[in-house]
Design brief:
- The protein has 71 residues and is an all-alpha fold.
- Helix 1 packs antiparallel against helix 2.
- The longest helix is centred in the last third of the chain and has 39 residues.
- The termini are far apart.
Amino acid sequence: PPLSFELDDSDLPATARSILRAVADGLLPTDQGKLLLDGLASMAKVIEVSELREQVERLEDEINSAKRDGY
């Protein structure tokens, strides 16, 4: 049967806390909680890599701009 628990999805840490709370309260089996937390960890890694790529691109743009300006 489908499980029901309150999920705060405002950000990843809040979502993780909601899952942990549901496991602690017995609303979500531990194996399903682990699967959900593993999925969140994967999503966090995707976000982290994406943000790092954007930062590197900005830094490269700044370096190239500085080179063009003679710095």
